[in-house]
Structures are given as structure tokens and as C-alpha cells.
């Protein structure tokens, strides 16, 4: 398996097709290997069974919250960030310390947060 592609696996949970396509393209341009899920149950299954380096979670997916996915990722030690147009108000206290991107956000902001999460994850692996 290609080590670079493996190191940069991103779970992208987004239900708006145009937003998902745009973010998928940005991630691919950055050398990441995105897996897109547009339904909570699909994303939850992926979060439980696949190894990702980082995840991007839209807070609301087809009317459902993504917090069960966030809980699984947190239990597995997979870093993630939330993306939402509604701010922090819907995020439960247990996940309030997670990075939050407010839609719409510039690609540079996404890159910055992903780089920081991946760096922190690598540092944690060595401690």
C-alpha cells in the first residue's frame, strides 16, 4: 500500500453534493485520500471499521447530528474537526474543544486546521 496515501486518509462527512465535491477536490489537491460519506449510518460504519488520519464532520447530515460519529472517532483516537454554518451552539460540551470551521470557510483555513490536527496526532503517537 502506498504509505503516503495511507498516512493522509480523511473521512469527509458532508451531505451537500457541491460542498462535498469541492472539499474532496481540495483534499486530493493537498495529497490527502478522502473518503466521502453523505449519510450518518454510512459514516458511522466507516468510523468504526476504517483507519483514518483525520475526519471532517459537517454537524448536520440530512437532519441528523454527527455526534455518534464524533464519539467513535474520539474513542479510537482519530482527530476530527466540525464544519457547520451554525456555529458552536449545537455542539455538545463533550466535543466543544474540537476545531470548528464555520461555513463558508476559505480552503486555506481547512488546510491550516488539517495540518495542525495531523501534526498533533503524529506528536501524540511519539509520546
Short description:
The protein is of the alpha/beta class and 127 residues long. It has helices at residues 3-7, 17-29, 40-49, 67-76, 107-125; strands at residues 9-13, 33-37, 54-58, 60-61, 64-65, 80-84, 100-102.
What brief labels describe this structure?
single chain; 127 residues; alpha/beta; 5-stranded parallel sheet; two-stranded antiparallel ribbon; 45% helix; globular; disordered N terminus
Order of helices and strands: HEHEHEEEHEEH
Weakly predicted, low-confidence segments:
1-6
Largest sheet: 5 strands, parallel
Distance between the termini: 26 Å
> What's the number of extended β-strand segments?
7
How many helices in DSSP terms? 5
% residues in beta strands: 15-25%
Mean pLDDT: 89
What gyration radius follows from the Cα positions, in whole Å? 13 Å
Helix share, percent: 40-55%
Shape: globular
The largest beta-sheet arranges its strands as 2-1-3-6-7
Structural class: alpha/beta
Give a description of the structure:
This protein is α/β, with parallel strands linked by helices and 127 residues long. Helix content is 45%, strand content 21%. It is built from five helices and seven strands, in the order H-E-H-E-H-E-E-E-H-E-E-H. The strands form two sheets. The chain has a five-stranded parallel β-sheet with strand order 2-1-3-6-7, with helices on both faces. Helix 3 packs parallel to helix 4. It is globular, with a radius of gyration of 13 Å.
